[in-house]
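Problem 3 from the worked examples.
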Amino acid sequence: MKTLVRAAACTVALAALCGGGLACRREDAKPPAAAEPAPPFDLPLVGGGRVTLDSLRGQTVLVDFWATWCPPCLLEIPELNALSAELAGSRARVLAISVDGLTLQALAEWVGEKGVKYPVALADTELATAYGADAFPFHVVLGPDGRVRERLESGFHDRSQLRAALARHAAR
């Protein structure tokens, strides 16, 4: 019972921190734009290498725009770790894009400390805005053709919600 009360208190505290919901609103957020096809990117990956929009073609990709300072984003790490593991060997994947102002090395250290197991790239809020982000976490599903297929409502989503979004647009 104490665990349940503690969990409820944490949820209420997170909601208060993030403006009443489990999403962290940006002060400079603009309304989502209908971005078809997806805005291109070429980003450095934690651990080395780069990821581009073109390199993701042929896969269905859940793109998670997030930040280290965002409490609901941190709550999603175990959900995304599990989902990414489930997707191993399939034509679907998770790609996290951090919009922090951190260096790539500082982000790599943070990712290692938190046990993030899925690919993490580093960008800025301009890219997130181009995809329609108004708060974090913000999720976009890219189809195998590199086009935006779905934008989820900003905020925390559990593994089953994220899995369902990918399944709606799975590469066939």
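Problem 4, a separate protein:
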Amino acid sequence: MMEQCYDLLSSDEIQMVHEASLEVLQSTGLRLNHPVAMEKLSAAGAKIDVAKEQVRLPAKMIEKALETAPKTFVCAGRSPEFDVVVSPGSAAMPLVRSVAGSINHYDLITNEYRPITLQDCRDIAQLVDALENMDIAGCLVPNDVSSKVYDLYALKVMLEGGRKHIWALPKDSRNLKYQLEMMKAVAGGGEALRQRPVCSGIVCLIEPLHFPNDEIERLLLYAEYNLPVKVPLVPLFGANAPYTLAGALTHTNAEALGTLVLLQTLCPGIPTWYYMLLSEMEMAKGTANYLNPEIMLIYSGMIQLARHYGIPSCSSPFVTTDCQIHQIMFERSAALAMYALSGVSEIGGAGSVDGAIAMSPLLLVIDDEMAAYMRRIMKGFEISQERLAVEAINRVGHKGSFLEDPHTLQFLHQERRFKPTLLDWRPYETWSKDGNTIVDRARDKIKHIKATHEVPPLEEPLQRELDHILQAAEKE
């Protein structure tokens, strides 16, 4: 496995960005007015201006938060064989997560674009369970159930339909209480959930450097079970973040460090990521771009900063704004390679399309293949005296044929090659006989998974308990 990471920034540049971020947090700081949070932050050394709802953070608070944040933690599956370890980058193989929060379903073949249903959530749970390179499942947003409890329906079918760790997105803190009850039921109780978190959560900055009260309420609920929490950093460069790349990097890093202080002050030791979901405003059009060369550069710099701080990082190279498969694959392959080589801990958004507003099962299968390709590159290869093949080279000499040499036969199975399930390397003469595209092959793979892949169901008493929790939420 590769041990060296690509460093975009020099050590001096990393220090410049860090110091600039500290200056932002000392001068501007965070904006919030949650009484418990304000009290704890003040006691820890923050400078509070109640009238302005401003919390300025001295450098020592950032240092303490970096010391307190876990460097490594487990995201558990419903079954232990699906547990994954989250750790800072470098030699770590990136984890892969399917897209979360999408509200629409897109069919690459028919171009049908429609709202996501609860059945789509079930199908995705089964698909993620079957795909070898998907480690974490993201909850979607079904539109055919009550908008007041859609998040509970989504989590329920994901828990029933798959065995991998779930990134659960709650509607609000009130619904989160019911989500936690579901998690506890599946994990086997509160202490079991604390030891093996089958789900992770989310807390959001709604505006730059601003935490609304309900987001903090959610954080405090997650902390009761020490569940891993993602805080998406979602700057739109040129709009709510600086236009220059260096300025955008400083602004977003300040948000990352400020967020870390909030989490570790209110909930010491709670697991978290340096999680980035970046976009840039197209100044001539007023639209957002999620994946251009400049965004890739900033992602690489942020991943390097996360490694510098010793915090697991998460990026979203699968999130693009376009819907054309050839362009999607070009952009994603470039981003996957760059972020992986930069040392990212987790990559998310697999299966997303149209800026993650929509998702496509066909793209999820294609993204799984791209992740497999990337993982093979990250493994590198072994160099040893035997594998250098000097004797074999001298033995074959100028004949130039290694097909029947013992060295080839010896390592034919020991040094296996990447075997695609969707990529088609046939020449034109052979391929043109059927003309199947990668989308056609992805469709066939989904049909095969639906027909053959079985997920062990939850025990009936547990299913009834989940039903009771959902009914109680609907009644409230």
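Solution to problem 4. The chain has a mean pLDDT of 94. The longest strand covers residues 346-350.
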